[in-house]
Records
---
Amino acid sequence: MKVSLFVTCLCEMFYADVAKDVVEVLERLGCEVDFPTGQVCCGQPAYNSGYRKDAIKAAKQMIKAFEGADYVVSPSGSCAAMFKEYPAIFAAEPVMKEKARQLAAKTYEFTQFIVDVLKVEDVGASFPVKATYHTSCHMTRLLGVTEAPFKLLKHVRGLELVPLSNSYDCCGFGGTFSVKMVPISEQMADEKIRHIEETEAEVLIGADNGCLMHIGGRLNRLGKPIRVMHIAQVLNHRGEGGEPYVDEDRKSTVL
């Protein structure tokens, strides 16, 4: 199965290791992954801020970049959801609207693709820590992906996943919201962190780098020793030191 990686801005600029983990997990599951070099920002920051012309320019470039892709997979539910907005953006342009519809139809968030398309829930990961999971707003409310991350984490050997109180509350990032509404954003992050601390988790797992960057930054400022990880990093973890995980039930090594 051929997959084109939609890496997203934050992943490319700040979280290259997450992109690497996404590729390695997909390849381990039998996918052939390519990276269309013509991709740029999906246009979401401009679109949400009212700069429609700039968003349309970015959208046209992204449609062109991924036109030949069989599947498009992104490590961000928020950015994947933006592709789903493209048909509405080009409502008055029939040709572009159809191209946008085709792109939207073949675009998936990382965990959504693994569970719903590849039909895999156990990727052979091992990560013996106590953790909790943050559900990001765009991924759950706009893209509608709610169960896939939990189905995958359920099968991670050694992982103790503790429920997070008020998990569906926004962390305060919201893209440009965290820049324009700093005091409110900060208070929302602090509330989220209080609930994370209540779980006594060592690690906070999430599927959107924007949320993780926001929460992680606030944790760092407050001096909290809680590690923040993208779910791809967890799913690509196969034991301490990165060694393969040995499935004792099947007596075989999961590579």
---
Amino acid sequence: MLNLDRCITEFDKGLRTLFAKAPTARPYPDASVEEAAMSEAEKKHAAALMRINHTGEICAQALYQGQALTARDAVVQEKLKHAAWEETEHLAWTSHRVHELGGRLSLLNPFWYTGSLAIGAVAGALGDKWNLGFLAETERQVGAHLQHHLDTLPPQDAKSRSVAQQMYVDEVGHSDMAVELGAAELPLPVKLAMRGMSKVMTKTVYWV
């Protein structure tokens, strides 16, 4: 059961995720990449894709937070916290890139965060093997989205591409970590439901 101090700490994490500038220990992946000439339509499209990636990282932060709250194994908790830090860096990178492209972040981020936090807490409460299974499947699906974005970004937008590529590498690593720790394979209906929810999020955030 959570005590008051921990509740306050977790609430503070949520506020920082949604409203504070995210920190990054690693350099921005696109720091040494030159900005390419793009049309306004190309910039708008790239910004929308990076906005989706940013919202995905908002959801990831909430999922990891919820899962860590209810995970039983101390090793699993620590692994989740480490992965959450890398997701925080992704927040910094994607937010920076969205603004460079003249875009804005999703207005619905508080909604996505709250829902993801609840899902993460439920997943953690089911037990560590299912918690990790949910994590592994989530990261696989995020990786698939990133690969799609790499295929559909404007060809000359090397800056956005370098950010998405490093994120993809990290997400694959998180999925592999979950499997190594004993992740259970989720039932197909659960995977399909997750994909359906993901499609709703991505299609909405592209515009809002």
---
Amino acid sequence: MNQKNLLGINSCFLDLDDPIQLFKIWMDEAIKSEPNDPNAVALATADDDNFPSVRMVLLKDFSKEGFVFYTNLNSKKGNELKKNPKASMCFHWKSLLRQIRISGTISLVADNVADVYYNSRSYESRIGAWASQQSEKLNSRDELINSIAKFKKKYNDEKKVPRPPYWSGWNLSPTSIEFWLDGNDRIHERLNYKKDNKGEWTKSLLSP
């Protein structure tokens, strides 16, 4: 699609064939304008009964290979992704009146990649990864506090806290990416990129 085809669309969409390039530009703008967590993204998964489940996670990396976030692999989302490795993301930046929707397939990041990110986290966050049995029922808040204290005693050297075997990162490899811009009178602007059978991106405008 050339510039002539895009005539009339807001200039923030640019005329790029690679949606990852456009994502980076929009993310850089969100970093400047969003007061908190511009990398926060709603992640949707589905359970065995095909019921959807959505929650906020933090995007920690992205590239042509996909969009990466980290979590306890035994959490609700972790268990759902093991059984159904398909997911969707939605970024919404209220300060920019923009959102991006991404759908694709999920796979685990390499262990060495997970190790690097895990070791960049604060000591408290690394301990928390051990102490919390994410999504499991808590009998009391004290149960969690006591678990944190136990693992702080076990791993009292802040430089030597190994990554739990059940904690890692997921990479969402996109098959579609949609860029959305708020418009007057609900006449929004939508630009959709879709990956074809050859792995190439095609793009088209969508009606609001």
